[in-house]
Specification:
- The chain has one domain: DNA polymerase, Y-family, little finger domain (Dna Ligase, domain 1, 2-Layer Sandwich).
- By secondary structure, it is α+β, with helices and mostly antiparallel strands.
- It has three helices and three strands.
- It has a three-stranded antiparallel sheet, with helices on one face.
- Helix content is 36%, strand content 29%.
- 21% of the residues are buried.
Length: 126
C-alpha cells in the first residue's frame, strides 16, 4: 500500500510542479473490496493540511505517508487507494508563513527538475 500511495504522490507532484502550482492540502483514501468474502468492509480517508503551500515531491510523499499511517489497518487486503491534492496557489501568489511547519528546502527547484527529468526519461523512477 505504501508503494502505491508513494507512486500516486510522485505523479501528482510532477503535475503540480509542471503547472507551476503549489498546494496546501493532500487527501489519501484506501478501501478493501466490498465484495470480498469473509472480510469486513473497510474504507477510510483523511486530509493533511499545511500552513504553507508546497509543490516539492518529497513533501507531498511525506505528508501522504503520514496520512496513510493514520488510516491504514494491518492485515487487510486493500483493493483501492489514491490521493488528491487541493487548495492550489499560483507560484507567483504563494506566500511563505514564518510560523508554519514547512520551510523551503535548499536547492529544491533544481533537485525537482533533475528528479522529474530522470523519472520521465523511461529509465526508471527515483
Amino acid at each position: 500500500m505504501r508503494q502505491a500511495i508513494c507512486t500516486y504522490a510522485e505523479r501528482a507532484a510532477e503535475k503540480v510542479l509542471g503547472e507551476r502550482q503549489f498546494c496546501r492540502e493532500i487527501s489519501v483514501f484506501i478501501s478493501i473490496s466490498p465484495h470480498a468474502e469473509n472480510e469486513i468492509y473497510y474504507s477510510s480517508q483523511a486530509i493533511g493540511k499545511l500552513l504553507t503551500p508546497f509543490n516539492d515531491t518529497r513533501d507531498i510523499i511525506r505528508v501522504a505517508m503520514e496520512i496513510l499511517d493514520r488510516i491504514c489497518l494491518d492485515n487487510l487486503r486493500y483493493m483501492k487507494a489514491g490521493i488528491m491534492l487541493s487548495d492550489f496557489f499560483s507560484q507567483h501568489v504563494a506566500l511563505l508563513n514564518q510560523f508554519g511547519d514547512h520551510k523551503p528546502q535548499a536547492n529544491r527547484e533544481a533537485l525537482m527538475r533533475v528528479t522529474d527529468g530522470l523519472n520521465q526519461s523511461g529509465k526508471g523512477k527515483l
